[in-house]
Amino acid sequence: MKTLYKGMDVVSALQFSRSDVELLIQVAEDLRRAVERGERLDIARGRVMFTAFFEPSTRTRLSFQFAMVKLGGSVVDLGPEEVSSMAKGETPEDTLRTVDSYGPDLVVVRHREPGFAKKAAEICKAPVINAGDGYNEHPTQALLDVYTIWRVFGRVDGVKVGMMGDLRYGRTISSLSYTLSNFRDVEIYFISPKELSPREEVLKVLDQRRVKYELYEKPDDVMEKLDVLYVTRLQKERMKPEDYERLKGSYIITYDYLKKFSRIPIILHPLPRVWELTTDVDVLPQAMYFEQAKNGLYTRMALIKLILGL
């Protein structure tokens, strides 16, 4: 397995080894300290990152853009579909071919089609980072999730992680499972209705890597075992309307629900949240999802730095 190198495309979390993740954590920590000291970083001066989000995004798109600017580089954003030539019928592939001819140093792409990031990497000469391809993967989200776990516990080895919600269509679940599988003695507890259990290709990887995992339908059965509860929303946009209506509300984390347990794990969520995680949970010290989002800035700064060879 190749390790992180200059000019690398980032399409899947399966590309990363343990040493890759540890290197990213180290670089992210170095950059974090520099930013918190108020240093003005200028290592990406003259470099241009193109962000092409063919599917809506807030945190991922903005954190990539902030990351590049904080490194001293520039960002060109595709903008919403209605103001681009896609409104006239241009394909995303042709959009990427055109922009790649302008010579960006890095392309960050999100698309609703599973596998689109791999296609983009084949089209573009510039390195491509997958910012989410349908229900398939979201590798940089997994990196920032593991970075958050490391910052809380000082380790990733031996953590017990419960992943709850839409485990079938939620792309963060596959990437986080793959990334955690690099570490020793990790235990994963999948918590969902049967209809939303993890996809077979995800479980197959965990089996191949001999990662311990168990499937549950109720969080009550496992909550006090967990170090981390990773809550996800139902992917309404990827489900039949009747399935969404039937399954919504099948799990919900509230302040009162958590307080009945003698031990509360840290709570993570890739955001955005809807009804599955209520705002009254925000007051708990274990609620780490906004810190998690902040960690995305430093993780993506580190990734950009390494891929551009800065």
UniProtKB/TrEMBL annotation:
GO terms for biological process: 'de novo' pyrimidine nucleobase biosynthetic process; 'de novo' UMP biosynthetic process; amino acid metabolic process. Keywords: Pyrimidine biosynthesis, Transferase. Signal peptide: none annotated. Residues 9-150 form the Aspartate/ornithine carbamoyltransferase carbamoyl-P binding domain. Its EC number is 2.1.3.2. It is an enzyme of class 2 (transferase). Carbamoyl phosphate binds at residues 59-60, 110, 138, 141, 271-272. One of its GO terms (molecular function) is aspartate carbamoyltransferase activity. Pathway: Pyrimidine metabolism; UMP biosynthesis via de novo pathway; (S)-dihydroorotate from bicarbonate: step 2/3. Residues 157-306 form the Aspartate/ornithine carbamoyltransferase Asp/Orn-binding domain. PROSITE patterns: CARBAMOYLTRANSFERASE. It comes from the Archaea. It catalyses: carbamoyl phosphate + L-aspartate = N-carbamoyl-L-aspartate + phosphate + H(+). The keyword Transferase applies. InterPro entries: Asp/Orn_carbamoyltranf_P-bd, Asp/Orn_carbamoylTrfase, Asp/Orn_carbamoylTrfase_sf, Asp_carbamoyltransf, Asp_carbamoyltransf_Asp/Orn-bd. It holds the Pfam family OTCace_N. L-aspartate binds at residues 88, 171, 233. Catalyzes the condensation of carbamoyl phosphate and aspartate to form carbamoyl aspartate and inorganic phosphate, the committed step in the de novo pyrimidine nucleotide biosynthesis pathway. Heterooligomer of catalytic and regulatory chains. Belongs to the aspartate/ornithine carbamoyltransferase superfamily. ATCase family. This is Aspartate carbamoyltransferase. It comes from Thermogladius calderae (strain DSM 22663 / VKM B-2946 / 1633).
